[in-house]
Every structure is written in C-alpha cells, then in structure tokens.
C-alpha cells in the first residue's frame, strides 16, 4: 500500500526559473534513464521476486524512486512556470507551452512520450540486479550533465542530492548481487560451451590506413584466454590458429540427470498403465455422451503414450521397467470413490465429479511429462524430447476438452431448490 506524504524527500528551491533548463530536466522525469522508469523497473521486479530479502530491497528503492520523480517534477515545474504567461519563454518549447500548459508531462527532453520499452525486466534476479546497477550508473551521468548546465544554486543542490542517491542504490544493488554468492559469469542455468567461452576473436584487424592498431590487455590475454587471430581470414587447414569450438552445449553428461530422467519415465510408465485400467470404468460411469467419447479417445491415446514411453527407454538403451507410482494410485482410488458416489447423484453432478477426478489425473501427468521433457532437453536427447512432447500435447488437449465439457454441464445443470433458495436469501440487497 502506498501512502503519499505531502512533503518532498528533498526540499526544492528555484531562485531563477529557466524554461530551457526545465525542458532538460524532463529527461529525468519521463526519459529512458529517468525516475519513473527506475521506479517502475524496480517495483515490477520486486513484485516478481520470490526472494523475500531482495524483494524488500527492490520495493524500498522502487518507492524511493517515486519520491525522486516528485522532486524532479517539482524542479521542472518551477523552471517551466514562465511558459504559462511569457511569450518569449513559451517559444523555447511550444510543445510544452501549448500542449502541456507550461507544466510537466510524461515526455523526455525531446518531447518523446514515456514508454514501458525503457524497462529491463527479465524475471532472473541476478540479471535484473545487473541491469539496475547499469541503470543507476546511466542516471548518475545524466544528473552530472544537468548539474554542469545549471546556474541556479537551489536546483544544483537538489540535483546533487539525487545524483548521490544513484550511487547509494548502485552500492545496494551491487551488495545484493554479491550476497547471492553466484560466480561472476554464471548467468542462468545452462552452462556455456567449454573452450568456446574462453576464445577471444580478434575480429577488427589492421593498422595505418587499413584500420586502428590491435591491442592486448586483460580483456583478451592472460588467465584462461585463447587469442584467436583473425578467425575469418584463416583457411582452416593452415594450423595458424586454434580451431573455433563450435559445440552449442557441454559434451560431458550432467551428473545425476540421467538417473532422474529414467526415474521420471518409470513413474510415468506405471501411471499410464494404471490409467488404462481405470478409464474403461470411467467410460461406463459417464452419462454424458460427449464425456464418454472423450474418455474413449483418451484411452486410445494413453495406449499410444505407453508405446512412446517404451520407445524412450529404447533410445536411452534401457529396459522399459515401470516403477510403482503412488501418486497415480491415490488418484485412481479417488476416482473409484467418485464413481461410487456418482451413482447416488443426478447426471450432471455425477459427470462433473468424474471430470474433477479426471482433471486431477491430467494435471499430475502434465507435470510429470513437463519435468521429463525438460530433463531430456538438458541431456540433449532430442528423440526423447519429441516423443514426450507428443504425450504432453495430448494430455494438455484432453485437459482443455474436459474444461469445455464441464462448462457445458454447468450451464445446463439446475441448482437444487434448497440451495437456490439459500443463495437468494443470502444475496445482498440491490444486487
């Protein structure tokens, strides 16, 4: 919850208004590196953040940036004020004077409207923190340039305050990033290709009339660097330079993921086999023809899914051995109870109960296939990925069809009289 306190974080004083400088100030009001962009970027990152400690940091600084927006807006308004009544001042920027009435608006110093395209939000906390550090650095430079073009002492004091807080925020974001204890160049979860990641390509070569000199430094020599001399000019068979490592991902297997994939596949295999036994009972229990037809189609799909799972094991060089799936066993037992209870209910209520039980099964399978497919992708088993993707697509389609049938049943089902009367009595007056 936001609460506006009617005083500025830094008291603004403008002794000599300067409409042209007021226009410059709009760069920090509605510009790419301005306070609104920073407030929105950090606040939305904070809303997305699952880390409670760093979420608090992002919301704190995002809120402070809103207060800075108010300071900058107040400064700009005071400098632009002469445009309201002075023709010469208005001519400094007719857009502000005529369209905006001599006040601030969400535009930059060139009159371009603020846009959410300014925001850098990836949902990856360490990447977002790096973006925030860079954003604060850019804002600091903008404030520095504004100070250099400012002659008003009160304005310079406010700008100095705002510029200083940019460094404070840089420090906070930097320390938050360091506290995550992630290696400096560890971005995301997929490792870079060994060898390729340490090759520096000398792709701008020449001297004198043909180009600038080639230089060496810690950015391309020492440590693990391998300097690639003009790779585009090498024939590839001269042996003059090391060959480019072109593999797109690590060649070594990721420890433990193979076993995890097999375990997930065995769980799915047992789950699908249990389902082939449960579906005939659900077909028989279904009273709505469309629901019975869907269960019949899905039974055939499930049998095909078992065949694909067997093929997955074959591609991995393993026997298609199922592992008891307690999760599915519980869902099947729950389905049996729903079928028994359904015999005591009307057609729509009984079928809605069946749909609920079936959807719980679908959601279990969707989660299982998604996990298995992601593991296969990590291990670069493209054939297995393709097979699992087909199974997953069928499960997702079945879930959508169940939703459609449920909506149809609910639209035709009538509430029992007692429930309907209770709903009317509890309904607020006038609604």
From TrEMBL:
<dbReference type="InterPro" id="IPR039377">
    <property type="entry name" value="Mn_catalase_dom"/>
</dbReference>
<dbReference type="InterPro" id="IPR047114">
    <property type="entry name" value="YciF"/>
</dbReference>
<dbReference type="InterPro" id="IPR009078">
    <property type="entry name" value="Ferritin-like_SF"/>
</dbReference>
<dbReference type="InterPro" id="IPR012347">
    <property type="entry name" value="Ferritin-like"/>
</dbReference>
<dbReference type="InterPro" id="IPR007760">
    <property type="entry name" value="Mn_catalase"/>
</dbReference>
<dbReference type="InterPro" id="IPR010287">
    <property type="entry name" value="DUF892_YciF-like"/>
</dbReference>
<comment type="similarity">
    <text>Belongs to the manganese catalase family.</text>
</comment>
<protein>
    <submittedName>
        <fullName>DUF892 family protein</fullName>
    </submittedName>
</protein>
<dbReference type="Pfam" id="PF05067">
    <property type="entry name" value="Mn_catalase"/>
</dbReference>
<dbReference type="Pfam" id="PF05974">
    <property type="entry name" value="DUF892"/>
</dbReference>
């Amino acid at each position: 919850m936001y609460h506006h306190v009617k005083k500025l974080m830094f008291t603004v004083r403008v002794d000599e208004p300067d409409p042209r400088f007021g226009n410059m100030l709009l760069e920090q009001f509605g510009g790419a590196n301005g306070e609104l962009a920073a407030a929105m970027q950090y606040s939305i990152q904070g809303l997305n953040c699952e880390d409670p400690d760093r979420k608090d940091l992002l919301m704190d600084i995002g809120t402070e940036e809103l207060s800075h927006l108010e300071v900058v807006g107040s400064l700009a308004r005071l400098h632009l004020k002469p445009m309201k009544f002075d023709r010469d001042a208005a001519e400094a920027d007719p857009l502000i004077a005529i369209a905006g009435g001599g006040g601030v608006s969400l535009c930059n110093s060139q009159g371009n409207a603020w846009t959410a395209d300014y925001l850098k939000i990836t949902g990856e906390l360490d990447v977002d923190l790096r973006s925030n550090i860079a954003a604060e650095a850019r804002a600091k430079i903008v404030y520095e340039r504004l100070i250099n073009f400012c002659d008003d002492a009160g304005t310079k004091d406010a700008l100095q305050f705002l510029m200083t807080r940019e460094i404070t925020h840089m420090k906070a974001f930097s320390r938050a990033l360091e506290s995550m204890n992630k290696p400096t160049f560890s971005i995301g979860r997929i490792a870079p290709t060994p060898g390729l990641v340490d090759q520096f390509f000398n792709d701008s070569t020449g001297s004198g009339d043909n180009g600038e000199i080639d230089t060496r430094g810690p950015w391309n020599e020492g440590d693990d660097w391998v300097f690639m001399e003009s790779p585009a000019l090498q024939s590839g068979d001269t042996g003059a330079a090391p060959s480019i490592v072109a593999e797109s991902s690590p060649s070594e297997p990721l420890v433990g993921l193979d076993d995890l994939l097999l375990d997930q596949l065995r769980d799915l295999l047992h789950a699908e086999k249990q389902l082939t036994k449960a579906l005939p009972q659900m077909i028989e229990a279904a009273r709505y023809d469309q629901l019975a037809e869907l269960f019949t189609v899905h039974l055939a799909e499930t049998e095909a899914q078992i065949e694909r799972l067997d093929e997955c094991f074959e591609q991995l060089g393993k026997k298609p051995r199922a592992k008891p799936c307690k999760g599915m066993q519980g869902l099947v037992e729950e389905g049996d109870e729903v079928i028994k209870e359904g015999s005591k209910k009307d057609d729509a209520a009984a079928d809605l109960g069946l749909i609920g039980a079936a959807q719980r099964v679908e959601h279990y399978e969707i989660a299982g296939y998604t996990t298995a497919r992601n593991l296969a992708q990590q291990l670069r088993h493209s054939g297995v990925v393709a097979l699992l993707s087909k199974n997953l697509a069928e499960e997702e389609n079945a879930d959508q069809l169940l939703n459609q049938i449920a909506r149809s049943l609910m639209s035709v089902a009538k509430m029992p009289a007692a429930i309907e009367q209770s709903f009317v009595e509890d309904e607020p007056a006038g609604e």
